[in-house]
Write a structure and sequence with these properties.
7-stranded mixed beta sheet
Length: about 375
């Protein structure tokens, strides 16, 4: 039997269950595994699992499923460890729904293993209930949950015609991230986002952050990637990968898109704009020994428990609301229409140029050096 495995998120990896489940599935046939999503990459790197779980491509989970479908495997497993059984099962429903819309025929069994090791863990056969489902349910002590049960419990709504998105399994006081942008904070365990003309205009169970909505801009609420709380929950010891740095000093620019930072892992320095972008990006780039120059304004929404930064990184703390303005001017003055430049010899030269740009804006700032 040829088995495809899509691993989603850091929690299933940090818990040790990703590797444990892959080893169990090897008892049924030939297994190939790949990551679905982005935030699991650092977990794969820290666990030294790059040779077990393919992280070479940035793919949403449904696209990772489609790759295995196109390879004509015999069965595909989706491994996930959501914050609760509700979030995990709703996640699986959405991933499977997106996947079905991308394929010509739904002929390959899709089986989700959710929150293994937990009392509310489950195994969900999304389209074909094979004998392996019952076997794994017994081995892993997981309840078998049908797609109909997931739909009836968590998905079915009567608000036809209203463009809204129910977010399940939230807790009060959590950040709300939409497509990697923090757009608000929860104040309830029930959360609904409401959009009009592809813009989020209201919220139930939380407070919106206008600056975050400006950064987000237009969004397809049905397809958006929505997360609440911390992106990674466990305390980890990051693994630093030795690499050959560019002979020419390569500087790249990243603006409010922390989860896209892997494309810059061959840089010598990355300039990041925004508190959360700087926090997430520097944490990821730490694994590749790449310093950052961050442009922040103190509007931090803490999306990881602890963010690591490479020694010699520099943080410019500018006046509140000025990080975007400074970022736009730095992009224009240093990069023009590009996202990378080779005009500098070291980080100190870049720092001087950025400081000149900020001074020209007549903006107050402080400089923090990472030692």
């Amino acid at each position: 039997m040829r088995i495809g495995v899509v691993v989603h998120g850091p929690n299933i990896i940090d818990s040790g269950y990703a590797l444990k489940l892959i080893d169990i599935l090897k008892g049924y046939g030939n297994v190939k595994a790949r990551l679905g999503g982005t935030m699991g990459r650092t977990a794969v790197i820290d666990a030294s699992l790059e040779d077990v779980i393919d992280i070479s491509c940035k793919l949403v989970p449904s696209d990772s499923l489609k790759i295995f479908h196109d390879d004509d495997v015999d069965v595909i497993f989706l491994l996930n460890y959501g914050k609760s059984d509700v979030t995990g099962q709703v996640f699986g429903y959405k991933v499977y729904s997106h996947y079905v819309n991308k394929i010509p025929d739904d002929n390959i069994p899709i089986i989700q293993i959710e929150r293994p090791g937990e009392a509310d863990g489950s195994i969900i056969p999304w389209n074909h209930n094979l004998g392996i489902v019952k076997d794994l349910s017994s081995k892993l002590s997981l309840d078998i949950v049908s797609p109909k049960e997931v739909y009836e419990r968590h998905i079915k709504q009567d608000n036809e015609g209203i463009n809204q998105r129910v977010v399940h399994g939230v807790s009060p006081g959590e950040n709300i991230m939409v497509n990697s942008v923090v757009i608000g904070k929860t104040n309830s365990d029930k959360l609904v986002l409401i959009a009009k003309d592809n813009h989020i205009v209201d919220i139930i169970g939380g407070e919106l952050k206008s600056h975050g909505l400006e950064k987000l801009g237009e969004v397809n609420l049905d397809k958006a990637i929505i997360k609440t709380g911390l992106l990674r929950h466990v305390k980890v010891t990051p693994r630093v990968i030795a690499r050959d740095k560019s002979k020419d000093f390569k500087v790249t620019f990243l603006d409010h898109a922390g989860e896209d930072v892997y494309q810059f892992k061959d840089s010598n320095l990355v300039i990041t704009v925004g508190d959360d972008t700087t926090l997430i990006s520097s944490d990821i780039l730490y694994r590749f020994d790449i310093p950052v120059i961050g442009i922040t304004d103190g509007d931090l929404d803490k999306v990881v428990e602890k963010g690591f930064k490479v020694k010699n990184s520099i943080i410019f703390e500018v006046e509140s609301g000025f990080d975007d303005v400074c970022g736009q001017n730095i992009k224009k003055e240093i990069f023009g229409d590009n996202v990378e430049v080779f005009d500098f010899k070291n980080i100190d030269e870049v720092k001087v140029r950025i400081e000149e740009t900020i001074k020209n804006i007549n903006c107050k700032y402080n400089i923090k050096y990472i030692n």
